[in-house]
Structures are given as structure tokens and as C-alpha cells.
Amino acid sequence: MPIAVQEQNPVETIKAALTKVSVTETNESFDLRSYSHFDATPSIGTEFRAYSPDGKPTLSIRDILGNKEREKALGRLVSERGVVFFRDAVISPDEQTKLVESLGRLGGKPSTSKLHVHPLTMGGSELGDEISMISNRYIFDNHFKRDDFTVLKRKFHADLWHSDITFEPVPSDYATLQIRKLPKVGGDTLWASAYEAYDRLSPVYKSLLEGLTATHVGQGFIDIAKKQNTTLREPRGAPENVGQHLSAVHPVVRTNPVTGWKGLFVNRGFTKRINELTQHESDNLLDFLFEHISANHDLQVRFRWEENSLAIWDNRSTFHSATEDLDDVERVGTRSVSLGEKPYLDPKSTGRREALLKARSQ
Is 335 an active-site residue? Predict the structure, then answer.
């Protein structure tokens, strides 16, 4: 007779249930969890170690690159855990683009969805159009310099939470980032789980949000382009991602097609208006949801970068934010972003916790 859920530590219940719906349950013969790793928090983040303290073999990103079965298993794990980290991951920017494209393709994204070309990149980049340079000194291209890195000019960090390019009609599924010019300390990145953000809402709130849509706008990028008297790049990796307005409408709650789990899909960086509400109602509801994401540490994970560290995440089910605490120290990384499907809500989908507990009871 199975042990009742209430008799166990809820953290252990969730972790035990996750094992039952991990990649080994999807007809994949490559079991990522047989390698030395740890879950960084109960709700988000899994890290593969560069060394093994538990006797299990270590897993390098080079053990996965180019192997479709292993890449598919990795994509599944990323979608389940939100973000996956590798230490000592020797990978070139070109390999980053190939990996993230493969993750999306193996996850079933439309054939018209390629890699994203950011609207603020200039043509003829040394690394190509599909790699974005992430720096605290400029915005995606050194043509667009920043002057807000001193302590008194920094943005309030709760305002930096976002999911990549949700201002596009076809936003991102997977993304990769490796920091290639490291500070000695600082410049951490945080991720938060959209699954857990959804699960922490009351049933009444969930029901309300699932009937709503929101408008996302990349206004900051539009303003930068106007200030520099330049136009935004287009097309941007999918036939739908064109135009100079950088605006799209998406459901407030979306389903991740890989896991079938619901997640909250608004972010302070780009979500400007809930369309079915008055402006006052929308502002108040969005303020609550933004604080819900940024203030709840139990749905977040913080990652300290080391040389050759690699992060791979699912933008459909996570939010992230850099920590801008570097003053005059430079931090530079290479990011590749795959485009997925148009966001949708499947009424038959469930929350993550509900799905995991149901899997455990079977």
C-alpha cells in the first residue's frame, strides 16, 4: 500500500515524483540522472558536476553534442527543471547555436521557427547574427553602449526579471548562455520557475488568469533604436517576427508542450497590459504577479558563474535576471536563443505539482 502523501516531507514527495516522470519515462534509453548531478532547489535547476563525489560518472556537454537521443533527453530535462547547468563545459558559440536549435527541433517546434536574431544586433557580426553578446557594458551590440552600470544608476533588480523576447509573436523555447569574460566575483544570474509561480496561486486566481491575454512590448529596444537613429533588425528568425513595433499578445497562462505543465507567462520586462481588464485593474494585477515572481525565493535558483559554466533554460517556463553588481568590471557572454511555437493554453494541461503527485500515485 503506497505511503500517503501527507506523511512525507513535501519536498521529498515532489523530488520522488519527478523521478517517475523524468526522461527515463519517455522512451529514452539515455538516463541523464544516472550521472553525477544535483537538483539546486526543489522546484527549479539541475546541475551536472565536473567531478563526482558520489561515485556516479560525470557528464560533459561534449558527451551530448551531436547525439540526437542525448540532446532530446537533455531538452526534456531542461523543460522539466526549467534550467540545467554544466560546469567545465567546453563549447564554442557556434556549438551553442547548433545545440539550442537541435533542442527546439527535437522538442517539436515548427519548421518555420529558427534561431532568433535580436532586433538590436548589427549585421556582419563576427560571431554571426544568431549569437547575442551579453555584456554589462552594452546592449547586445557594442554599437549600443550603456551608461547605467554605476551603483546610483542601476535599475531596481526586481525590475530586471524577464523571459527572453516575449515581445515577439513567436518567442523563445530554449536558450543557452556561457559567460566568457568573468569577474572574480559578482554577475550571478537568477532563474525563477513559471510552473511554481502558477502552482502557488489559489484556484480562483488560476481560473481568472487562464481566461486572460496580455500584450508584451519591447519598448526599451524601440527607444534605443530611435535614440541611435537606426532601425530594428528584421526578419528575426521566424516569418511572424517582423516589424518595428515589437509587440505581441500571449496568454497569461501557457502550456509547455514538452511537459504539458501550465506556467505563468507574464514578466516585468515586457508585459505591459492585460487586455481584458481596465488599465487600473491591469496595472494592479500585473504588479501583484511581478512581485509574486521576484519576491518568492522558493521558486528561484541563483547561479554563480565559473570559467566554462554553461546554462541551458526553457524560456516558456522560466524567468531570469542578471545581478548587476560589477561597477567597473566587465562581464561578457555568448547567448543563443531558439524560437519555439506561438504560446497557447491547453485546457487539458495541469500544473507541475498536480502532474507529479498524480504520477506518484499511479
Answer: yes
Angle at 315 between CA 310 and CA 316, to 5 degrees: 145
The active-site residue out of 320, 331, 353, 360 is 320
Q: How far apart are CA 289 and CA 212, in angstroms?
A: 13
The pTM of this model reads 0.89
Q: What is the pLDDT of residues 155-185, one digit of tens each?
A: 767 789 999 999 999 999 999 999 999 999 9
**Nearest Cα to Cα of residue 337 among 104, 119, 181, 137:** 104
Cell of 243: 516589424
Question: DSSP letter at 2?
Answer: P
Give per-10-residue mean pLDDT for the chain (362 aa).
36 39 47 96 97 94 97 98 96 97 98 95 75 69 57 73 98 97 93 98 98 97 90 95 97 98 98 98 98 97 97 98 86 95 97 95 85
Question: Helix, strand or coil for residue 292?
Answer: helix
The span from the CA of 252 to the CA of 247, in Å, is: 15
**Omega into 235 within 30° of 0, i.e. cis?**
yes
Per-residue model confidence as pLDDT tens digits over 27-84: 446 899 999 999 999 999 999 999 999 999 999 999 999 999 999 999 999 999 999 9
Catalytic residue among 129, 164, 199, 314: 164
Q: Is 297 a catalytic residue?
A: no
**For 138, phi and psi rounded to 5 degrees?**
-150, 170
Contacts of 97 (CB under 8 A, 6+ apart): 115, 128, 130, 131, 336
Given 105, 116, 162, 250, the catalytic residue: 162
Residues 327 and 215: beta-carbon distance below 8 Å? no
Set 118, 268, 292, 335: catalytic member: 335
* Dihedral (CA of 235, 163, 113, 47) sign: positive
49 is catalytic: no
